[in-house]
Design a protein that fits this description.
Radius of gyration: 22 Å
Shape: elongated
Length: 297
């Protein structure tokens, strides 16, 4: 992510009912679902763990994900109608466990944890939320979208083990044992980039302050009031912003389709192409990228 780059623009296929087949739109959110191999040995498909298939229930703008099994693999297609699953038939989650999408085989919570520890939980891209001049769009994912979401993790990420605290930190039971496990590779790239930019921004602020004739003075921690202290203060606020962003840009957040704008230019929907916006449970704002259908509690 280059310093100073704004929102990324992508040519995105628009579903029927939205005009032309191809349209320039902003990708707000990639919605993901965690997956687990079905315990049925006769039909061991990789099944998604999804609380609800609905993307929007707003009258006239209904959208939901239709998941079907084709040749042993799950395919996802966004539907734009009100004929989605009814209450009691929605999603594949049952309590803390689930059911196989293929044949309804029960999947216990213990089995999900066991699979997470032994082989790791998988993930499927199930829908894309985009935005154009007319509003929000819900799109079906394709192989190109999936390929674009796969990036290499940076080398300098926090790989320390999470502390053992079952009451408050429950991810190790699912195989997520390190801090870096809580983020996608794209999120890690974005967050490490932002972290690196904090120090670069401090250097630029210091350079401009000195050029403006402000004396260097002492560092902020030493009680300084000059250019060095000013640069430290700006860097501190930027670092706090990055820290706050990392809390919202994790795979343990779910999508919150809030109101369109909180502040002019700052959007509040879903997950970005680098970071994201979410609540504390299983999606992703900064340059919006991915969201997670809650596959774990």
């Amino acid at each position: 992510m280059a310093a100073g780059r704004g929102r990324e623009t992508h040519w995105t296929p628009i579903p029927e009912g939205h005009g032309s087949r191809w349209h320039r739109a902003y990708c707000d959110c990639l919605i993901w679902a965690r997956t687990v191999i079905s315990p049925n040995p006769a039909n061991p498909i990789e099944t998604p763990l999804v609380r609800s298939w609905w993307l929007s229930k707003k009258k006239g703008k209904e959208a939901w994900v239709k998941a079907t099994v084709v040749d042993g693999r799950v395919q996802y297609e966004v539907q734009h109608n009100a004929d989605g699953p009814k209450k009691g038939e929605d999603g594949t989650r049952v309590g803390r466990g689930g059911i196989s999408l293929a044949d309804g085989t029960p999947i216990s919570a213990d089995y999900i944890k066991e699979q997470g520890v032994q082989r790791g939980l998988g993930s499927h891209l199930i829908a894309i939320v985009a935005e154009d001049k007319k509003g929000r769009l819900y799109l079906s994912p394709n192989a190109e979208h999936m390929a674009a979401s796969l990036v290499k993790a940076p080398d300098d990420v926090p790989r320390q083990e999470l502390p053992y605290d079952p009451r408050n930190i429950w991810t190790p039971a699912y195989g997520l044992t390190n801090f870096s496990d809580l983020f996608t590779n794209r999120q890690l790239v974005a967050l490490t980039t932002l972290s690196d930019l904090v120090s670069k921004a401090r250097g630029k602020v210091l350079e401009d302050a000195l050029a403006a004739g402000i004396q260097a003075g002492e560092r902020l921690e030493d009680g300084g009031m000059g250019a060095e202290a000013y640069a430290d203060a700006v860097a501190t606020y930027l670092a706090l912003g990055v820290s706050r962003q990392s809390n919202r840009s994790a795979t343990l957040n779910t999508w919150q389709p809030l109101e369109r704008k909180i502040v002019p230019g700052i959007y509040s929907t879903g997950y970005s192409y680098g970071v994201g916006l979410c609540r504390n449970k299983s999606i992703f704002t900064f340059n919006r990228e991915s969201c997670w259908s809650d596959g774990m509690d």
